[in-house]
Sequence to fold (238 residues):
Amino acid sequence: MLFPAGARPSASAIRAALARGATGQISHDPAPREGGVSSDWLEVVVDGLTFDLLGLASGPSLRPPAPRHCFGVSAESLAGCEAIGLAPGPHLAGAASAMPVVRTLLRLAASLASQWETALGALWLPAESAMRRDLFVSAIDAWLAGGPFPALGLAAVTQRRGGMLASDGLAFFTGQELVLDPALSTDRLAATRLLVRLIDHLVEEPPLAGERTVRLENGHSLRLEPSGSDIAVTPGGM
Fold:
């Protein structure tokens, strides 16, 4: 989560947010119980899963990378911002991309982000994608309520050599990125919409191991074929 300089929450602010009804409970505070300084990290438990909150004030800020994709914010507006981080606890390290862990982590992140209007937004590291605070909270809440996966936020669209458009960030979940055939990439808006639909379709499925045909609402179809760490998407006809 990204904040203006000097506006990061402290451990006591996190405690207050949780007391107001934010998701989760503190399961470990490394600060001594008596006479200790405020800790710059906390362990929070949600539904039996533990997550580390890092970079809390008054300790040093985390140093987020410059975003490669921005939604509702600009990279320039985030220059000089400070950050706190949220990561799966050590016992979840091997399951960081498992969907139950991702859903729980993002539920906690959106709940906390909603507590501070001063927050500038959120940076999703697997796609190095920055989202304005209100967009992040509404997109995550809608997804967790049964809506579409926030493909433009937790993933993004990028252009590869030859003008082909591709997903950027889907591989965190499935190990593969989608790459559109040049014939499907000429109209950038239509291609982006197509990638968003395909990401939503594939994000909770195992890696594609063989050729698959996807039928679109307009009666056309697409051919999806694994190619190394990518999935080649080509027109499949009527």
